[in-house]
Design brief:
It is a single chain. It contains 13 helices and 19 strands. The strands form four sheets. Strands 15-12-14-13-17-18-16-19 form an eight-stranded antiparallel beta sheet, sandwiched between helices. The protein has a five-stranded antiparallel beta sheet with strand order 5-6-10-8-9. Strand 13 and strand 14 form a beta hairpin. It is globular and about 70 Å long. Bound molecules: flavin-adenine dinucleotide. Flavin-adenine dinucleotide (FAD) binds next to strand 3, helix 4 and strand 10.
């Protein structure tokens, strides 16, 4: 371990003071994995990443990587080997002339959005402002305004990475294209350390507007059927999402909430874009309604953040399906009504039909459903995890795969593989064999 002296950052071995606190801090989820790396290296610079990978190679250690710690399953925390913690690499620099930004992997969506807004620019960051770019972009990144901006990885122009050989490389469509292909979707099985992303920026929408209807949960079938119909007539700049869970501001009431967020160039355009949503034939039956409320990215983050409160224990799982949501959500309503924790919820949306370039991320279905068990008391771990698995199991026969960023990877050995098309999975193995022939980087958790 002599090389550790070359690190500017921190190196903590298992058993040393501070190890357990640092290990726990690697994972945002209050539910911490029972896995224990031999060494955690908290790097202080991009150069440190090179040093750490070389150190791991020379010590024969496998490498796992952590950026923002938001993977629900705590994929960065593995048994044995070295965990490289990138949390101090959180800078972003905007270049207005080229409308690009250089961002380090632990930069959070909220911070990037704020830096860009000063220049009238934006990026499809994750729905919750605390999500860091690293794992989000590598997984594909289902961020805000997907109908216009697409999955966030589509706006990654280039990455800088440290490879298993301990070398720094630059990757884009023109340079090391196979590693770049993998970096746009491989998620928590990527086999290099990304130290910097070059992002293509978008114009900040001048008018962001949110509308919502809250209906009693037993109306799930008719509300979903309307939502699917209206989604088809909304312009791409309106993001429609459906939540099954506890009604906002009404702790005792289970509800289905349909939200439409418009990203428009003017207040008039925002109002026009929501015409079909405004004309909801079920509106009279709504328990509550939010009517075209102006919003900022900060307000959007605040709304999303309320769904996933800090310091809670969470189990999450996803399904892509070729069925429409009208066939899926009614199957989940009973489970949502009976969830052991009132904070648990199901989110669903209809991914925009888009032709994506060749990259590891792909939209696997017409509909997307994600379930979250959210609770606080460790004594209730088993009941809540069981609830999530039983609920998502109702949809499983109609599912065609998972989204790697939010799949319940510990649940079954197939979750990682089924997050890709069979061809993509094969190609990922081939690209990994080329860039990491000795298996320096940890494989997927339960591939
Ligand atoms: C509150 C919350 C809200 C979320 N909202 C969304 C959302 O709106 N849309 C969405 O798509 N996802 C969302 N997610 C899921 C999130 O995108 C993924 O969990 C993602 O992995 C988080 O990135 P991270 O860097 O924080 O993850 P980490 O836990 O730090 O890393 C996860 C894995 O990614 C890999 N990794 C991360 N950084 C690097 C790097 N620089 N180089 C190499 N490998 C790396 C590692 O394999 C690591 O195990 C949300 C998660 C939470 C907790």
């Amino acid at each position: 371990m002599g090389l550790g002296r070359d690190l500017e950052g921190l190196l903590v071995r298992r058993g040393e003071a501070g190890y357990e606190d640092l290990r726990a801090a690697m994972v945002w989820n209050g539910l911490k994995p029972e896995r224990f790396p031999d060494v955690i290296v908290q790097v202080a610079s991009e150069r440190d990443v090179l040093t750490a990978v070389r150190l791991a190679r020379s010590a024969g250690m496998r490498v796992a990587v952590r950026a923002g710690g938001h993977n629900w399953a705590g994929t960065s925390v593995r048994d044995g080997g070295m965990l490289i913690d990138l949390s101090r690499l959180d800078a972003c620099a905007v270049d207005t002339a080229s409308a690009t930004a250089g961002a380090q992997p632990a930069a959070r969506g909220r911070d990037l959005a704020a830096a860009l807004a000063e220049h009238g620019l934006a990026f499809p960051v994750g729905h919750c402002g605390s999500v860091a770019l690293g794992g989000f972009l590598l997984s594909g990144g289902l961020g805000w305004n997907p109908g216009v901006w697409g999955p966030a990885c589509l706006s990654v122009a280039e990455i800088e990475a440290v490879t298993a050989a301990g070398e720094a490389v630059r990757c884009s469509e023109d340079e090391n294209a196979d590693l770049f292909w993998a970096a746009r979707g491989a998620g928590p099985g990527f086999f290099a350390v990304v130290t910097r992303f070059r992002l293509c920026l978008r114009r900040l929408p001048a008018a962001i507007t949110t509308s919502a209807y809250v209906f009693p949960l037993p109306r799930v079938a008719e509300v979903t059927s309307w939502a699917v119909e209206v989604a088809a007539s909304l312009p791409p700049a309106v993001e429609l999402s459906i939540m099954l869970g506890t009604a906002p501001q009404e702790p005792g009431t289970k509800a289905i909430v349909v939200t439409a967020t418009s990203f428009a160039d003017s207040a008039d355009e925002a109002a026009r874009s929501l015409t079909a949503f405004r004309a909801c034939p079920l509106a009279e039956r709504a328990l509550a309604r939010v009517a075209e409320q102006p919003a900022t990215f900060d307000a959007l983050f605040e709304g999303a953040g309320a769904l996933w409160p800090e310091r809670h224990r969470v189990a999450a799982d996803t399904h892509w399906s070729m069925e429409d949501l009208g066939a899926l959500l009614p199957l989940l309503a009973d489970d949502v009504a009976k969830a052991p924790s009132g904070k648990s919820l199901v989110l669903a949306n209809i991914p925009p039909a888009a032709v994506l370039p060749d990259m590891a991320f792909s939209v696997l279905g017409r509909s997307y459903v994600v379930g979250y068990a959210i609770w606080q008391d460790p004594a209730h771990d088993q009941a809540n995890i069981r609830w999530l698995r039983e609920a998502m199991g109702k949809v499983a026969p109609l599912a065609v795969g998972h989204y790697i960023a939010e799949a319940d990877l510990p649940a079954a050995a197939s979750r990682s593989r089924r997050s890709f098309t069979p061809d993509t999975w094969e190609r990922l193995q081939a690209v990994r064999a080329r860039w990491d022939p000795e298996g320096v980087f940890q494989p997927y958790l339960r591939p």
